[in-house]
Amino acid sequence: xxxxxxxxxxxxxxxxxxxxxxxxxxxxxxxxxxxxxxxxxxxxxxxxxxxxxxxxxxxxxxxxxxxxxxxxxxxxxxxxxxxxxxxxxxxxxxxxxxxxxxxxxxxxxxxxxxxxxxxxxxxxxxxxxxxxxxxxxxxxxxxxxxxxxxxxxxxxxxxxxxxxxxxxxxxxxxxxxxxxxxxxxxxxxxxxxxxxxxxxxxxxxxxxxxxxxxxxxxxxxxxxxxxxxxxxxxxxxxxxxxxxxxxxxxxxxxxxxxxxxxxxxxxxxxxxxxxxxxxxxxxxxxxxxxxxxxxxxxxxxxxxxxxxxxxxxxxxxxxxxxxxxxxxxxxxxxxxxxxxxxxxxxxxxxxxxxxxxxxxxxxxxxxxxxxxxxxxxxxxxxxxxxxxxxxxxxxxxxxxxxxxxxxxxxxxxxxxxxxxxxxxxxxxxxxxxxxxxxxxxxxxxxxxxxxxx
Length: 453
Fold this sequence. Notes:
The protein is α+β, with helices and mostly antiparallel strands. It has helices spanning about 5-45, 55-65, 105-115, 150-205, 215-265, 270-300, 315-330, 345-360, 415-425; strands at about 65, 85-90, 95-100, 120-125, 130-135, 145-150, 310-315, 335, 340-345, 370-375, 380, 430-435, 440-445, 450. The relative contact order is 0.07.
């Protein structure tokens, strides 16, 4: 069943339940009120028979039809003020009546007639007519039954039941129709959104138009869906660009490897110096290719082995990176570090700092030192090389981007992209500037860092 149908049925059921409750309450209140008015009317007559000497009862019964053969008395159908009477003797036997042929007598009526005390009110049927009857005792013994036609009231109540039932049915049907119309209008954005999602699932296209969003919940869902499609589209475009760039970058070392291997295979008697040079080149290209593959995997998956966050002494990480780079390159690296601790991933930070230091070593010649400065919330690496050209600054952190000056040097163009990614995963940022007296300055900032005690 569709959502529209469920909403329509729910509204119809809710309206029907409400209408039934209201109709039932209306009927019960009306029935009770009418019965109370009739009973009050009968009570007003019953009070006439409460006189101690019984004159009113005697007068009424003397005008009534004598069941024992008295002549020239009023006919049974001749009621008094719209009220019929039936007189009972001490045994509870009807002896006379006015306005009615006969009224039923039950055990309670017989008991009232025998004692001459008490009363009861009930609804009875007599010869196809409905009567509301009050039996009241007479002080001298016997009882009088006072009756009022209740048939018209029953017919009115019956008509009321029919009308109320019709109202319940009509209200439920109207509510179902209105519920369906409201549901149709309310769920229209959801239907359009569902169609868009199905089209995306069927065709794989992410440029499917999403219906205009309002300010309600379906509107929020539509906006979220459009944002998700845009993010997925951007991610797919980035992945495609990464694959294209990776293919381009991988082609160069693979070509070099293939050429060197073919040379070794074709010329087995190469001079030892040439062979050593080719092998050294093969080793260098293999290492470069391994580094490139590692960096590609990390950038493509945006994961670093799901390393958990922990408290990291950044100044100590910098000291270890600098010491390792000094040992490998033999270059002079100066460190000015203040102690601070931040919440982060040690391997990510080590890789990012290492890339900056290695990049500074690569682009500055000895004996010019590399300067590393550490302050709470900030890591700065400066070289004394040519700096970064103005045209290259907006792109140095892009994947595979290599400036004209950098193309003659080894590298994949991914190192600074990794630095940027690490900074962003730690809620930080990285920027590059040129120093006033020459050289480039790369600075990573971490807004959520804190000094170490």
